[in-house]
UniProtKB/TrEMBL annotation:
Family (UniProt): Belongs to the LysR transcriptional regulatory family.
Matches recorded under SUPFAM superfamilies: Periplasmic binding protein-like II, Winged helix' DNA-binding domain
Family annotation (InterPro entries): LysR_HTH_N, LysR_subst-bd, WH-like_DNA-bd_sf, WH_DNA-bd_sf
Organism: Demequina sediminis
Protein name per the record: HTH-type transcriptional regulator GltC
Keywords: DNA-binding, Transcription, Transcription regulation
Domain HTH lysR-type: start-end pairs: 2-59
Keyword DNA-binding belongs to the record: yes
């Protein structure tokens, strides 16, 4: 059998182009790396790396092996994380990756709840959009990925601009919350008190677009209705987006979680749109990890936090809409 350490060294040589740098990358001395490389080549019966004036390069056999090695090392890393979880995450660290608005709202509430119930369980958090979050999960770089998908009138949105995703064998997705998508419009706008605003009526408006994924979704859904929105401003900052709307500079689509992360000022009116647009927030993990009590309890805490935020936000939005309509 080929030693995983030898595979890691080969990949590092391919990445670094130098045996010394590769040894440093895998945490061994240069003589030890040389010995590992010789051992690997004896086992295979052929050279996998050659010294050149510029450093080291892989042979054709080395390139073939490096391609397999990357997949093997990824699988081994994922296996280690799942086994460590099964052995007892209650005393370890649970690694989460999430898109920004959930990281700013759902996750802090869930972490507080879990810390109170399980003070020995630690957490780490990294931010990434759906496609990268799932890739990180499959590389074994996280234990839970918090992602989302758009729905239009209750049906999953398959607009070509949106990044599609599917579960792989051995993965499960649990819904945390289905949040409403609102139209943020200047309170002084002539349509601010309108009960529901069809998107085609906004074809001549200036739009304020959010993150690249949200922007792609906006372009996809408006194209369904036969128009391309004029994007006057683009920002990943929810506060800036709502301030631009409040200043009368355009309209935007915002979700419950965005509104919880950045409270709109009194100059912004929130109206329902037609078609009804929602964003479904989900947590994805492997089936093996979902057998671990700590992971299951974290999922429950995430779902409880999401439901609490969405309910509170919808109550506030309902009250705000009523005040605007009354005027």
């Amino acid at each position: 059998m080929i030693d995983l350490r030898h595979l890691a060294l080969l990949v590092a040589i391919d990445d670094e182009g130098s045996l010394t740098a590769a040894a440093r990358a895998v945490g061994v001395s240069q003589p030890a790396a040389s010995q590992q490389l010789r051992t690997l080549e004896r086992r295979l019966g052929t050279a996998v790396a050659l010294r050149t004036p510029g450093g080291f390069r892989l042979t054709e056999a080395g390139r073939v092996l490096a391609g397999h090695a990357r997949q093997i090392l990824d699988s081994a890393s994922r296996a280690e994380s799942e086994i460590a979880a099964i052995a007892g995450l209650h005393g370890g660290t649970l690694r989460l990756v999430s898109f920004p608005s959930a990281a700013a709202t759902i996750l802090p509430r869930a972490f507080v709840s879990m810390r109170e119930a399980h003070p020995d369980l630690g957490f780490t958090l990294r931010e990434a959009e759906t496609a990268e979050a799932l890739a990180m999960l499959r590389r074994g770089e996280c234990d839970l990925a918090v992602i989302y998908e758009w729905r239009v009138d209750g049906t999953a949105d398959d607009a070509p601009e949106d990044v599609p995703w599917t579960l792989e064998p051995g993965e499960l997705a649990l819904t945390l919350v289905e949040e409403e998508v609102h139209l943020a419009i200047p309170r002084s706008h002539v349509r601010a008190a309108q009960a529901r605003i069809p998107l085609p009526e906004l074809r001549d408006e200036t739009w304020i677009a959010g993150c690249p994924v949200c922007r792609a979704h906006l372009l996809g859904i408006t194209r369904r209705w036969g128009f391309a929105p004029h994007l006057g401003f683009e920002t990943d900052d929810y506060v800036a987006l709502l301030r631009l709307v409040g200043a009368g500079l355009g309209v935007a689509l915002v979700t419950d979680l965005m509104l919880d992360a950045a409270r709109p000022e009194d100059t912004v009116a929130l109206r329902p749109v037609s078609p009804v647009v929602t964003r479904v927030v989900k947590a994805v993990a492997s089936e093996a990890l979902l057998k671990v009590p700590g992971v299951r309890e974290t999922l429950a805490a995430l779902a409880e936090a999401g439901a609490t935020i969405a309910a509170a936000q919808r109550a506030q939005v309902t009250a705000q809409r009523a005040r605007v309509a009354a005027r």
